[in-house]
Amino acid sequence: MVRAIVVAHGNLAVELLDTARRVYGAFEGCVAVSNDEKSPVTLVEELEAIVDEEPDDDGCVLFVDFFGGSCCHACLRVGHQRSHVRVVTGVNLPMVVAFLYKRDEVPFDELPREVVARGHASVRTLNAEEC
Amino acid sequence: MPLCLIRVDDRLIHGQVILGWARAMKPGRIVVANDRIATSTWERKFYTSSVPSNIKVSFLDLDETARQLLNNLFKNELVMILFESVKDVYSVVAKGVSMTDVNIGGLHYRQGAEELLPYVFLTGEDRTYLRELVKLSVRLTAQDIPGNSPRVINPLVV
To answer: The pTM is what?
Structure first.
């Protein structure tokens, strides 16, 4: 199974996964991690422990709340020398749900791009006339 | 070099620095003073890509940071300097650079560190270097973002 770790500031990661459960239903293989009060070294070690506890999985996607922050840096450090890890930034609810639906359907190498495309498609300005 | 901020933050360039301090102080350049990152290509690219294009970024090892500060090489720019640790700040001070104010912006939990503030956890080694800075009359101000109140922590670390 392809696994996911959502890494974000505050309670965002745990809330994203909890909310995804209401939309998708129960799922496994996803972990929420916050960077609250953690040094970069502590955060990297925590992520490495989660990634490496199942080295034979089908891959692991690290979802990060925003590009350029400390969560993102930690994920890049973890993914740097691990070929089965991918990092995706700007995570939102449609992306998490898309990941859950697509992880068994799409090859791992194509999965991040598909999830990002879903994220892009969900971000737009709207008014009622243009829907 | 006009220095607008000397900051200790184990996360170096991140949201609080770009969205908080750089917006408030409008530096022309951010200097990341760190031996490891000065030689890590992907980390330099990563940090550079997270800084708005109107702010220049330099990655200097600690020797070069001290040399540039002593020789006033950024004299026409407003500069913000970021250190990863108190030890790194002290190593630059020990090379002859004088500092009056250092912002303690984030030293998060590591093994053996004790909480002073929610974003400041100190190890015994941190305290040793902080005491040395206090002896040199450096004012140590804990403040994570510009919108929160600053707190002088000199009496808490000696």
So the answer is: 0.87
Q: Does B109 contact A38 at a Cβ distance shorter than 8 Å?
A: yes
The answer regarding whether domain B3-157 maps to CATH 3.40.50.150 reads no
Q: Taking the domains of chain B in order of start, what are their residue ranges?
A: 3-157
The answer to whether B14 contacts A76, with C-beta atoms less than 8 Å apart, is no
| A9: closest chain B residue by CA | B15
- Closest CB from A38, A73, A76 relative to B108: A38
B108, B115, B126, B145: best to mutate for the A interface, most A CBs within 10 A = B108
Contact A73 B43 (CB under 8 A): yes
Q: Using alpha carbons only, how large is chain A's radius of gyration in Å?
A: 15
Residue of A nearest to B106 (CA): A39
Q: Is the Cα torsion angle B85, B139, B155, B103 positive or negative in sign?
A: negative
Q: Per-residue pLDDT for chain B (158 aa), expressed as one digit of tens each?
A: 578 999 999 999 998 999 999 999 999 999 999 999 999 999 999 999 999 999 999 999 999 999 999 998 877 899 999 999 999 999 999 999 999 999 999 999 999 999 999 999 999 999 999 999 999 999 999 999 999 999 999 999 98
Question: Which of B14, B56, B127, B151 is the catalytic position?
Answer: B14
CA distance A66 to B77: 29
| Contacts A87 to B, Cβ<8 Å | none
The span from the CA of A47 to the CA of B24, in Å, is: 33
| Residues A7, A35 contacting (CB under 8 angstroms) | yes
Which burial class, exposed, middle or buried, applies to A30 when counting CB atoms under 10 A from its CB (0-12, 13-18, 19+)?
Answer: buried
Which residues of chain B are within 8 Å of residue A9 when distances are taken between CB atoms?
15
d(CA A73, CA A35): 11
Give alpha helix (H) positions in B19-139: 23-25, 35-38, 41-49, 62-70, 86-93, 124-135
